[in-house]
Design brief:
Helix content is 54%, strand content 11%. The protein is mainly alpha-helical. Strands 1-2 form a two-stranded antiparallel ribbon. Strand 1 (59-62) and strand 2 (69-72) form a beta hairpin. Helix 1 (3-10) packs across helix 2 (15-25) and helix 2 (15-25) crosses helix 4 (43-55). The protein is globular and about 35 Å long.
Length: 74
Amino acid sequence: MQKVEIMLVELGLTATEAKIYLAGLSSESMTIKEIGLKTKVKRPTIYHSLGTLQEKGLVFEKKGGSKARFSMSS
């Protein structure tokens, strides 16, 4: 685990949430598939983690087109 991931866990994120959040920061927005390819986390886990990150105000869903895209707030 990277230092930044450890800091995010200390701030209250799970290790998986931290991994997904950091992956999402590398792009303006990402689909579930893109997040999965980057993190190697399974789709159901990504959906759950994105939901909890949305509740914490760290992720926003961009609707439009055929696929939902997710953006991480900095």
